[in-house]
């Protein structure tokens, strides 16, 4: 197979120290350390590196290594190789401390410098904030006052910070977080991570659009009827009820994941793959989103909660009966939005976004539905119209894409039938795709910010979402519509799209 390298400048990954705040937490154990381990197995890590976990839980280096080893065994996409692990774990360290305590940062600096001297590391440092946003200010201040964070300066050792979502809960709080991090770090040093942007199919969106001459000429309002972007989750809120009560589906999923997917679908062709050029193209999409304000929320949005039902044969309680949820909660577990990108390319084309918990399956996809063919020849029967052509990009599970076309049924009678031209990464390339965190951590090490949200994009997306939140607040609802757990959402969402003569896709 002749695999073409992408025409992007490959920045060498320098030796560095990764410091994970929240190092004893689930994200570090389930995602971050397994991601670094897989980068090692794939030969992508520099020869010299160190990982320091920082958390409140008292642990020795050995206890930390044992903890994350269990995480690698359970969650790594590649099996643990004993010899490789024994070499890898010598690069793992732990320090106990409170994010608000100045002594933590003095101890962290002393340990980092000792490790860097012993392992001959140059002092390049990446700080991953896998902690609540309420602690960001304390961490940034501690890093600055201890001298751990350094400004960008030529060939000097670099400092970079990774901010885990959510970056705020509305426009004002997002601006506050950006101010806090911006006081210590230059924008070029800040990497706001959205793991969806590291998924293989999401990265493939740009390649599908801009490396195939058959798509870009028809990627506009003249040929595309509408776009559906769906992120469905099969589980309820589970143990995340306290977080979810403060967030809800709009904040948790639409503001970041789905809007970023929308940007990749709708953006104009960038003139290069330079990170700022790509991010400028995405930013233009956010600037063109039609605001949904005031009573417009009744026409363009639907929110609901899951009620008692069954998922995968197991009973699921209603959302308001979940442990940690207020019995009179109006936090949405499902949201559907009809959005418009008001520019020349997309004039009049609706983008239907939906996400929810306790739906029939865990799946994510972008579906681009093309306009119907004229009602002549093979589409002459209005009572039985031909299905439209649909390009579907599956993000999870079974990463890949499919194109639905109409074909003739073999035989003596003139009959047609829709068929799927299907591609799956695992079938073609014979190996599992890298996990999103692997790609994104490697990007940070290389200083490539193209898959990370810039400050203006974060604030623009929050500005759009906050207007919806304000419109909902004006409704003063006491109860939300409901849908049974294990179904595809409320009837109100069906009505919203059916009023336009369209239907939701069944994933």
TrEMBL record:
Pathway(s) the chain acts in: Carbohydrate degradation; pentose phosphate pathway; D-ribulose 5-phosphate from D-glucose 6-phosphate (oxidative stage): step 1/3
Keyword Signal among record annotations: no
Residues holding substrate: 195, 199, 233, 252, 357
EC number of this enzyme: 1.1.1.49
Key words of the record: Carbohydrate metabolism, Glucose metabolism, NADP, Oxidoreductase
Gene Ontology terms describing biological process: glucose metabolic process; pentose-phosphate shunt, oxidative branch
Repeat recorded as keyword: no
Reactions performed catalytically: D-glucose 6-phosphate + NADP(+) = 6-phospho-D-glucono-1,5-lactone + NADPH + H(+)
Record: active site: 257 (proton acceptor)
GO MF annotations in UniProt: glucose-6-phosphate dehydrogenase activity; NADP binding
Classification via PROSITE patterns: G6P_DEHYDROGENASE
Residues the entry annotates as binding NADP(+): 22-29, 56, 165
Annotated GO CC locations: cytosol
PANTHER family given in the database record: GLUCOSE-6-PHOSPHATE 1-DEHYDROGENASE (PTHR23429:SF0), GLUCOSE-6-PHOSPHATE 1-DEHYDROGENASE G6PD (PTHR23429)
Family, as annotated: Belongs to the glucose-6-phosphate dehydrogenase family.
Functional summary from the UniProt entry: Catalyzes the oxidation of glucose 6-phosphate to 6-phosphogluconolactone.
Record-given protein name: Glucose-6-phosphate 1-dehydrogenase
Organism (species): Nitrospira defluvii
